[in-house]
Write a structure and sequence with these properties.
The chain is mostly beta strands and about 190 residues long. About 5% of the residues lie in helices and about 70% in strands. Strands 1, 2, 3, 4, 5, 6, 7, 8, 9, 10, 11, 12, 13 and 14 form a 14-stranded antiparallel beta sheet that branches.
Amino acid sequence: RFRQGNGEFIWNGNLDTDTNAISGELNFSHWNIPSVAAFLRFPIHDVTGEISGSMALGGTIDSPDASAKFQIENGMLGDTAMGTGSAELTYRDHVLDIHKFRVPVGQGVLAVKGNMQKDGSLDMEIGTDSVDISWIPAVLLNNPGTHMGGTLTTEISLRGTVTDPEADVSVSIDHPVYHNFSFDHAYLMANV
């Protein structure tokens, strides 16, 4: 058992130092999202919240297998509240599978499902329904001074590789605002 900030972690398992085999379960609660991102070496800006759940670990240190289920709680994307979300994912044979990732954002919802291979191959579906976009400048662009508004509904089918992605994109924004410019509706369909 150990703690990091508000996070509490309970490890029940084994590590064989001769073979580097690992097996066990890690239960965690109130793990701070910026700390999770730092641990995974994933840069984020202006995101807060906590995750709680469990992760089963197996395989070896060099080739681990993991299966995780967790809830996202008390989150904020910039000034936009996230509701309680949930995720289920596995990492086996160097393949990350996102079985479920669903998080309420403002009055809308963000969902992701799919996988990414060790070689960077992608096969993912990303969708939003009526998601407030005011958080995008602060969180994704690291530019909190940019004013953006509206509600976003998307369907994105992502494939190819991380370095050469292909996507079928359908984007609809109700009442988009960018600084002093506003529209009733914006819509885009593309294959990129």
